[in-house]
Amino acid sequence: MKSPRLIQIAHQDPQAIRAELLAGLVAPTATIAPKYLYDALGSRLFTAITELPEYYPTRTEAVIFSHEMKDMARALGPVATLVDLGAGNCEKAARLFETFRVQRYVAVDISVNYLRDSLACLQREHPEMDMLGVGLDFSAALALPAEIGNGPRTLFYPGSSIGNFTPAEALAFLRQAQAASQGGTLLIGVDLVKPVSILEPAYDDPLGVTAAFNRNMLLHLNRLAGTDFNIADWRHVAFFNGSESRIEMHLEALRDVRVSWPGGERRFRAGERMHTENSYKWQLDDFAGLLQQAGFSRLRHWTDENEWFAVFAAFAGNGDA
Predict the structure, then answer these.
(1) CB neighbourhood size of 163 (10 A)
(2) Do 138 and 73 sit in the same domain of this protein?
(3) How many CA atoms, within 13 angstroms, populate the side-chain half-sphere of residue 33?
(4) For 17-62, how does the pLDDT look when each residue is reduced to its tens digit (9 = 90+)?
């Protein structure tokens, strides 16, 4: 049986992380990047969110793949190298291996340590497959390592994480993905515009799991930046901003609060908010246009019967759209 290789592209610099977080805290509108929602507890809380009846994206995308996977495989052809962006526990990609005839699997996540156990288990299930784990924060730049090898690749980006990017950022990311595929393909999940009555409960569930997920970020900040947030001072706020076509998540001060850290502090007024996440929702034609702007062609997409979610396949390079 082969053993998965593991490489860390860029180790996280604690001082750089602290500087980034404090810069966000002292900005006119305090803003923290959504990647800081995902410490160990945050990741487990997000897994719990995906099991809530109100959270439609995960189960809707799964239905699309279960119904359309063979058609997707016919559209893309055999996959020599599958690059799984934001791989997490690798489960979504593993479901593609047989149907897509994947020969090589590359799991990319912010920390290779998070991938270690998942890849070890996956290797036992697929002992002959070449597997590589890559520790990389691709939210800033999608710079894949040479160890992946040359030749066309299929980049796999499920779960509608593209929604965390603004449209301009999404275009920049897709252009990087187009180059990184080396003439290959992209398979990407995209959340679509739908009634507010469906959208908002998915990000503000009555059980309060999403609220715990959002407020847990404050505990993560305390560890990373030396702040003294008290989660009892804050409440979770989520709503659909129709003019921007996005769900916004915030943390709102319940009372006047002073947050301090070594060398500084910030005072928040009661009702003042800290912006923690955006999740953009797309129209099918608009996202297809974005893919074309990024240099992709020969687009295909599959949706559920309600058109709540879509999976797009796109080819890098020139061709008929």
Answers:
(1) 21
(2) yes
(3) 14
(4) 999 999 999 999 999 999 999 888 998 899 899 999 999 999 999 9
DSSP H or E run through 68: helix 56-76
Q: Are residues 246 and 263 in the same domain?
A: yes
pLDDT exceeding 70 applies to what percent of the chain? 99
Q: What is the pLDDT of residues 221-262, one digit of tens each?
A: 999 999 999 999 999 999 999 999 999 999 999 999 999 999
Strand, coil or helix: what is 32?
Answer: coil
pLDDT digits (tens, 9 = 90+) for 66-77: 999 999 999 999
* Whether residues 275 and 287 fall in one domain: no
Cβ–Cβ < 8 Å for 272, 252: yes
pLDDT of 318 reads 58
Does 76 share its domain with 137?
yes
Spatial separation of the C-alpha atoms in residues 21 and 201, rounded to whole Å? 28
Is residue 8 included in any domain, yes or no?
no
- Structure pTM? 0.92
Phi-psi map region of 259: left, alpha, beta (phi>0 left; psi -120 to 50 alpha): beta
117 lies in the same domain as 252: no
156 φ, ψ (degrees, to nearest 5): -115, 120
First-to-last alpha carbon distance for the chain, in angstroms, is 42
Strands laid side by side in the 246-253 sheet: 234-241, 246-253, 273-280
Residue ranges making up the domain that contains 230: 24-52+200-280
